Amino acid sequence: MIDNHNYFKNNYEESRETFRGLLSKVQEVWPEAKLYQHAIGENEDNTIDVIYAEATSSNDKVTLLTSGEHGIEGYAGAAVIHLFVDSYLESIDPSTTGICLVHAINPWGMRHFRRVTENNVDLNRNYFLEETDVPYDLNENYEKESRIFLPKKPVDVISKEKTELYEALSKGMMNEGYKGIKQAKGMGQFQFDRGVYFGGYEEEPSGSYIKTWQRHLLEQFQKVIHMDWHTALGPTNEVTMVISEKHGIKEDELKASYGMENIQVFSPEDVKGDSTNYFYELREAEYPSTSLFSALFEFGTFGTSREAELREFTTIILENQLYWEGTEHEESREWIQEELMNMFYPKEKEWKESVLEEACEAIESVLKKENILESSASHSSHE
């Protein structure tokens, strides 16, 4: 059993300080490893922190672990990176393998326990190869049902708000409104800057910075293995791999190859502005000789039922409304904030334990298959 108290932090600054402290452990394997701190925004001390080292002899491959693209989800991601440093570095050959660890791609969101950036942008709908690729008028269904998705008034008594929203979404199960928000979840929307799932009018500074690292790794290494850590999607207390069809391998083959039960392959036609898909497009366009594996790894919370989906949309919509319009009802504020934590950073010991255990399985499945970890490597062997 892994002691989860050591890994899950209470706030952004505590998490960042812990991450920065991992540099000395990384330097035991890669003596030349450095810590890079990139400021994001002007009003707070928010930074994207990167620990990076090239291979000591030959840049054959690199392991890239990223966290906090969706702010609040970064607490679980940071815990996994910490566990990775504690448990797996000894099983990696630094002479042929580099390391790149990223804390809090969206530091403002992580600090304020929101998914989005300070500009209300869902960062994982903000990555495009060309600025002209941003699909400003993409989501007609969202526009038609904007009364549901756009905050217009302060949050009322929570029982009333929940009932009205559940009714609106339930009635919309088979109509354009429900399709609109489901489509927005995947495609984003690029018209309403106060709406949920907003992909931005332009490239976010956080995305610009991460793109420089993606490009650098594709330039420097023959093979890039990228695991991007998230929370919420998929079966409760289980990890799900989500990967672009640009990787070129079908779902059944991936399950057989990596030995993972939960794998989803998505189409760029259904998901716009995804950072991992951008990685594949960049590789395809400019670094075709570099081998790339890039996927999201989601730790499930609410589950996969229709009821869970309704709960998810209700939480996302009400949290956005609370942020922009506020409320006079403290009970409403508390309920929304607690439900947001339940969705993205649950406090239950069982969930935290499952994150670390499932992360170990995913790390070992992927990094052994990609010849990063020795075949005998396991978390238990390092306890």
Write the layout of secondary structure elements.
Blueprint: H1 12-20, H2 23-29, E1 34-39, E2 47-53, E3 61-66, H3 74-88, E4 97-103, H4 107-111, H5 140-144, H6 146-149, H7 158-171, H8 176-187, H9 205-220, E5 223-232, E6 239-244, H10 251-258, E7 263-266, H11 275-286, E8 291-300, H12 306-325, H13 330-344, H14 349-369
Parallel strand pairs: 3-4, 3-5, 5-8, 6-7
Antiparallel strand pairs: 1-2, 2-4, 6-8
Helix pairs in contact: 1-3, 3-14, 7-12, 9-11, 12-13
Pfam family, one: DUF2817
Organism: Halobacillus trueperi
Protein name: DUF2817 domain-containing protein
Textual characterization of the structure:
It is a single chain. By secondary structure, this protein is an alpha/beta fold. It folds into two domains: 4-117 and 202-301 and 347-382, Zn peptidases (Aminopeptidase, 3-Layer(aba) Sandwich); 135-196 and 304-344, no CATH class. Helices cover 43% and strands 15% of the residues. It is built from 14 helices and eight strands. Strands 1-2-4-3-5-8-6-7 form an eight-stranded mixed beta sheet, with helices on both faces. Strand 1 and strand 2 (47-53) form a beta hairpin. The radius of gyration is 20 Å and the shape is globular. It comes from Halobacillus trueperi.
